[in-house]
Amino acid sequence: MSSTLRFQVVGEAFKKKPLEIPNRDERPSEFFAKYVFNRQKMFKYLPSKVYEKMCDVMDNGTTLDLQTADAVAEGMKRWAMELGATHCTHWFQPLTEGTAEKHDGFVEHDWKGGMVEEFTGKALVQQEPDASSFPSGGIRSTFEARGYSAWDPASPVFVIGDTLMIPTVFISYTGEALDYKAPLKKALKAVNEAAVDVASYFYDDVTKVVSNLGWEQEYFLVDEGLYAARPDLLMTGRTLMGHDSAKNQQMDDHYFGSIPRRVAAFMKDLEIQALELGIPCKTRHNEVAPNQFELAPIFEETNLAVDHNMLMMSLMRDVARKHGFRCLLHEKPFAGINGSGKHCNWSLSTNTGVLLHAPGKTPMDNLRFVTFVVETLMGVYRHNGLLKGSIISATNAHRLGANEAPPAIISSFLGKQLTDLLTALEESDDNQLFNLGGKQALSLDIPQVPELLLDNTDRNRTSPFAFTGNRFEFRAVGSSANCAAAMIVLNAAVAEALADFKRRVDARIAETAAKYEGTEHTAKYHAIIDVLREDIKACKPIHFEGNGYSEEWKEEAKRRGLDVEQSAPRMFLQYLAPESIEMFRKTGVLTEAELEARTDIKLETYTKKIQIEARIFGDLCLNHIIPVATRYQSQLIDNVHRVSEIFPAEEAREVSQNNLKLIKQISEHTSFITENVERLIDARRVANRIGSESERAVAYHDTVAPLLEQIRYHVDKLELIVDDELWPLPKYREMLFIR
Ligand code: ADP
Ligand code: MG
Questions:
Q1: Segment 685-698, tens digit of pLDDT
Q2: Which residue(s) pair with 300 in the sheet?
Q3: Which residue among 345, 483, 491 has the greatest number of ligand 1 atoms within 8 angstroms of its CB, and so is best to mutate?
Q4: Rounded to an integer, what distance in angstroms lies between the CA atom of residue 170 and that of residue 613?
C-alpha cells in the first residue's frame, strides 16, 4: 500500500459513524429463542405423542425411531417455512476450527412435473456430506470418503436466514469420531454415570448428573479498512510485526471503561441476534487491552454451551462486518498487550441440586461437596499434562506462559476456606469426626462451610484452574478454540477419578462391614472419609495458592512432578501418553486409533499455521519492509550528499551526523532481516523434508517460529526510524483505538 492510501484508510477509520444502536420494542424474554425449535415450539408443532417421545429422547437419551423422526421433521419444516426457511443443513464441528455445513433445499419432485417442499425424517437424522476434505488424521482415506453427520437431538435446531440449521455429530463410515461433538457427548455420558454412582452415596434420589459450562468469550475489534491493509492480520489472524503503541494498556483505562458508541452498536446488535438464537447472553464489558472486549452468557449444559459458543463465534464475525469491523478471535493479535482467552466455568449438577456447591446445611452435604471437589482435583492432577495438551495450539501458545494469562503449568487454586477445610479433613482422626453413638447421633464434625465461600473476592487470577464458589474456572482455554477439546478431557478425567473413587470406597466398605455391623451408614462414611484423606494427600501437587506467574513456581512445579513442558507440539503428544489412552479407553470416550488421528491433526495444523505465518512474514519483509527502509535510506544518503555540496567537509560531517547514524542503523537492520529471512526459508525447507508429523511440528517450533520473533525485533526498530509517511502498514496506535 502506498503511504497516501495508508493515510486514506486510517483517516476513514477515524471518521466512521456508528450504525444506529438497534432498539427492540419487545423485551428479551419475548424474543429469546425466536428462531429455535425448542420445547415450546415442539409442543405447538408436533402431535402430542411425538412431543412426548422427543422429550424422552432429550431427557433420557433414548433413541429416536425413524417414524418419530419423520413426524418431527414434518413439524419442524412447517415451523421453519413459516420463518422463511427454504433450505436445511447439517451443522457440524470438524477438527478444523469453526463449523461446517452443507445446504440442501426442501424441494422434491412431486412426480407430476412439479415440485413440493419436503423434509423427511431421514434427512433430519442423517446426511452424508462428501467429507474427504475434512481432516481425519488418516482414519478415512480419501477413496473411502464417507462420513456421516447425525442429528444431535440434545441441541435444538434453529433457523438462520433461509436455512434450518441442524446440530449434528460427524463420524466416519466405520464409526470413528471426526469431530469434537461425538467424543464430547461420550465424555458427558461417562461423567454422568460416574457422578450418579458417587452421588448416590449421599442422596437416594439422584438419577442424572449434568455437566455445565459457562464460557466467557474475549475478542478484539479492528476497523475493517485497517484490517484489509494488514496482509498478516488477514491471512494469519495476528500482526506478525508492529511496534508497541506509545500508549497501550499501561493506564488500565480500558478495562470496564465506557464502551465506544460504534462498539456499543455492534454489541447490542450481536446480543439481539444471539438471544433470538437462544444464546442466553448476560454480560459484556471492555477487557484489559485497548479494543478488547468480552461477552458471556449464562451457563448451560455443556453440549449445548459448546454449540452456542461455536454459533456465537460465527455470529460475532458476521455482525462485526456489518458494523465495519473485523472481529479477531486469535489469542494474540497484537504483541505487547493482553491476548484473548475463553474462561470455561465448569460445574456438575444433579436433577436435585448443584454438586460443587457448599450450602453447609448438613454434614452430608458438606461431605458430598468435599468429595466432588477432591475428585475433580484428582482428575486434573492425574491428567494435568493432557489438559494442557487440550488447550494448546499454535495461536494459544503466544498467550500461555506470558505474564498475562495462565502459566503453561496446570495447577488449582482453592482459596483459604476450602484449603483449610481440606487440611482439617486430612488431619482429623476418626474420633474427632465421628460420634459413633449410633445412626441417629452420627455427626461429621467437618467445619460448617459458610455461605461466605460463595464470595469469590480472593480469586487468584494467575491460576489456570481456580475454584470460584460453586464451580471451577478453567482459564487456559484460548479465545479461538472449540471449548469442546478442553471439556472432553476435563469431563472424562473427572469421570475416571469418580469411578476410581467409587471402586475404592466400595472395596473399603466391604472390608470394614464386619467392624461396623448393623451400622451400614457408619461403614460407608468411614470408607468415604478414608479414601478422601488418601486423595487429598495424593493430589496435593496440583494445589497451588501462590503466584502462578513467578519463576519460583516453575521450579516448584517441576519438583512436584507437574507437567512443565513449554512447547506446543510436545504438549500434543500427551494425548498418546499411556495414562491418557487408558483413561479414554476406560471412560469409552476415544479409542487409541482416534487419539492417534487427532494428535496427527493437531500436529499438522500446528505446522501449517507456522508455515503460513513464516511465508507471509517473509513476503512482508522482502516486499514491503526492506524496499521502504531502503528508499528512506536513499533519501537520507541524498541529503548527506547535498549537505556536503553546500558545507565545507568538516561542518558537513557535523550537520549530517544524525543522518549518518540512521543510514548505518538502517543498514544493520535490513541486513539482519535479509539474512535471516533466508535462514527462515532454509529452516522451512529442512523441516518440510521431515517425514514424521511430530518431528516436523517440533522442527517448526524449534527452528522456524523463533526466527519470526528475532526478525520481527528488527522490523519493529525500522518502524521507529523510517519516515511515517512511507511506512506501508497501519500501525498499532492506528489500529488499537476505536473512536
Ligand atoms: P468473571 O469474568 O468474573 O470470571 P463472569 O460473570 O464474566 O465472571 O462469568 C462467569 C461465568 O460463569 C458466566 O458464564 C456464568 O454463567 C458462569 N457460571 C456461573 N455459575 C456457574 C456454574 N455453577 N457452573 C458453570 N458456570 C457457571
Ligand atoms: Mg472469568
A1: 999 999 999 999 99
A2: 213
A3: 345
A4: 30
Q: For cell 472481529, what's the residue?
A: 327
Q: Of the ligands numbered here, which is closest to the C-alpha atom of 471? A: 1
Tell which residue, 388, 418, 393, has the closest CA to residue 406: 388
Please give the number of the atom of ligand 1 that sits closest to the Cα of 343: 4
CA 578 to chain centre: 25
Q: Report the distance separating Cα 217 and Cα 222, nearest Å.
A: 16
Cell readout for 342 is 475463553
Question: Is residue 293 lining ligand 1, measured as CB closer than 6 Å?
Answer: no
Q: Name the band, by pLDDT with cuts 50, 70 and 90, for residue 327.
A: very high
Q: What is the pLDDT of residue 252?
A: 62
Tens of pLDDT along 147-182? 888 999 999 999 999 999 999 999 888 888 989 999
Q: Which amino acid is at 255?
A: Y
Q: What is the pLDDT of residue 254?
A: 60
| CB of residue 296 inside a 6 A radius of ligand 1 | yes
Distance 205 CA to ligand 1 centre (A): 27
pLDDT grade for 438, boundaries at 50, 70 and 90 = very low
> Model confidence over 284-326: pLDDT tens digits?
888 778 899 999 999 999 999 999 999 999 999 999 999 999 9
- Confidence band for 443, pLDDT divided at 50, 70 and 90: very low
Q: What is the DSSP string of 493-558?
A: HHHHHHHHHHHHHHHHHHHHTTTTTT-HHHHHHHHHHHHHHHHHHHTGGGB--S-TTSHHHHHHHH
pLDDT of residue 355: 76
> Cα–Cα distances in Å, from 384 out to 26, 85, 391, 490, 606?
47, 46, 11, 10, 21
700-710 average pLDDT score: 97
Is the CB of 345 inside a 6 Å radius of any atom of ligand 1? yes
Length of the chain: 739
For residue 138, pLDDT beyond 90: no
Q: Is 298 in the pocket of ligand 1 (CB under 6 A)?
A: yes
375-413 pLDDT, tens digit each:
999 999 999 999 999 999 999 999 987 767 777 899 999
- Does 442 have pLDDT greater than 50? no
Sorted by where each starts, the structural domains of the chain and their CATH numbers stand as 32-179 (3.10.20.70), 188-590 (3.30.590.10), 605-735 (1.20.120.1560)
Which amino acid, residue 610? I
Banded pLDDT at 452 (limits 50, 70, 90)? very low
Distance between CA 596 and CA 288 in Å, rounded? 38
**Long-range residue pairs from 146-150, CB within 8 A, at least 24 positions apart, any chain:** 146/172, 146/173, 147/171, 147/172, 147/173, 147/178, 148/172, 148/173, 149/90, 149/92, 150/125, 150/126
Contact assessment for residue 266 and residue 713, using Cβ atoms and an 8 Å cutoff: no
- Ligand 1 lined by 245 (C-beta under 6 Å): no
C-alpha cell at 107: 424441494
Instruction: Give the contacts of 260 (CB within 8 A, at least 6 positions apart).
Output: 738, 739
User: Rounded to the nearest whole angstrom, what is the distance from the C-alpha of residue 472 to the centroid of ligand 1?
Assistant: 9
Query: For ligand 1, what atom is nearest to the CA of residue 354?
Result: 23
The pLDDT score that the predictor gives to residue 253 is: 63
**422: amino acid identity, one letter:** L
Q: Which ligand is nearest to the CA of 345?
A: 1
Answer whether 116 contacts ligand 1 (Cβ < 6 A). Answer: no
Helix axes of 657-688 and 592-619: crossing angle, nearest 10 degrees? 150
Residue 98 gets the label, from left (phi > 0), alpha (psi -120 to 50) or beta, of left
Which residue in the block uniquely carries the three cell numbers 470408607? 527
Gap from CA of 679 to ligand 1 centroid (Å): 47
Q: By C-alpha distance, which of 570, 560, 519 is closest to 700?
A: 570
For ligand 2, the distance from its centroid to the CA atom of residue 475, given in whole angstroms, is: 7
